[in-house]
TrEMBL record:
SMART domains: PKS_ER (SM00829). Residues 11-314 form the Enoyl reductase (ER) domain. Pfam families: ADH_N, ADH_zinc_N. This is Quinone oxidoreductase. SUPFAM superfamilies: GroES-like, NAD(P)-binding Rossmann-fold domains. It comes from Flaviflexus equikiangi. Keywords: NADP, Oxidoreductase. InterPro entries: ADH-like_C (IPR013149), ADH-like_N (IPR013154), ER (IPR020843), GroES-like_sf (IPR011032), NAD(P)-bd_dom_sf (IPR036291), QOR-like (IPR047618).
């Protein structure tokens, strides 16, 4: 048997409990990995709350890092002891996890495993937002919510590397110091944001909004005609049904609700570029809190509190 944390049903962090379950067995094309760190992400809370359907009891965790300790049939090149990270796995809140070999991200020896775990899902998310959803170039103007969070800090740095000007929002004065954007706004009233953005940069080319319900109706009005609203999360709740005629009235706007899974065909390029930035000191990966796996419920409460900065990790070993 092995140790894991599972959600026993739909609800709050109290639904996360310690369990002993049979260790996973890798099938064809899969790796068995001993987990060092598991990343905590909003998608984990969505599954715990039942926003994204899962079968309970459910061991959560899409992301982590560790060392290969076994392989299924047909897997070559991933030997025991190889250091890997992953961003689209399952059941990572556990001693061991099985991931597709095609999803494994090689971690060079000079990159710490906690950094790799912090960079996997949020780094790849920031990369596809900045490099693919709206290919940011020199002169692009951006509005980015949650600028002190894990995705926000990385996205701001990647945007700056492309020559963009970014207005970021944070939820408190204390978070100002963690923002990497060109301009940073402390927001306690979302209705005031469009006016403040116009004073700083005029209208923007793209909005990256991970807040959702509380922010969406206001951030979308910051766009220039034919600008893009990219809704990539719902930290404040999910956006209610939306009247598409508003896109016409606001300037023939575009809206997308992307997910990382549809941008992983070229994950090797994305990962190598991220690792290159970290190695060269161009990308600062902030780990805001590391908690033991047994405190997963506290970690969920923390990420949902709106007070966290950077990445939250669970230390498995």
């Amino acid at each position: 048997m092995m140790y894991a944390i599972a959600a026993t049903g739909r609800g709050g962090p109290d639904k996360l409990v310690e369990v002993d379950i049979p260790p996973p067995v890798p099938g064809p094309g899969e790796l068995l990995v001993e987990v060092d760190y598991a990343g905590v992400n909003f998608i984990d809370t969505y599954e715990r709350r039942g926003i994204y359907p899962v079968d309970y009891p459910a061991v959560l965790g899409r992301e982590g890092s560790g060392r290969v300790i076994g392989r299924g049939a047909g897997v070559e090149g991933w030997w025991d002891g190889t250091r890997v990270a992953w961003a689209d796995g399952r059941r990572s809140y556990a001693d061991k996890v099985v991931i597709p070999a095609s999803s494994a991200l090689y971690v060079p020896d000079h990159i710490r495993l906690d950094i790799a775990a912090a960079l996997a899902l949020q780094g790849l998310t920031a990369h596809y937002l900045i490099r693919s959803v709206f290919p940011v170039t020199d002169g692009t103007t951006i509005l980015l919510t949650g600028a002190a969070g894990g995705v926000g800090r990385l996205a701001a740095q990647l945007a700056a590397a492309q020559g963009a000007t970014t207005v970021g929002t944070v939820g408190s004065q204390e978070k100002m110091a963690f923002s990497q954007t060109t301009h940073t706004l402390v927001v306690d009233d979302w209705s005031a944001v469009p006016g403040r953005v116009r004073e700083l940069v005029g209208s923007v080319d793209v909005v990256y909004d991970g807040i959702g319900r509380a922010s969406f109706d206001h951030t979308i009005t910051c766009l220039r005609p034919r600008g893009l609203m990219c809704l990539f999360g719902g930290a404040s709740g999910q956006v209610p049904p939306f009247d598409l005629q508003r896109l016409n009235a606001l300037g023939s706007l575009y809206v997308t609700r992307p997910t990382l899974a549809h941008y992983l065909d070229d994950q090797e390029w994305r990962w190598n570029e991220l690792i290159g930035h970290v190695s060269a000191g161009r990308l600062d990966v902030l780990i805001g809190r590391v908690a033991p796996l047994s405190q997963a419920a506290h970690a969920h409460s923390f990420i949902e509190s709106g007070t966290s900065v950077g990445k939250i990790l669970l230390k498995v070993r």
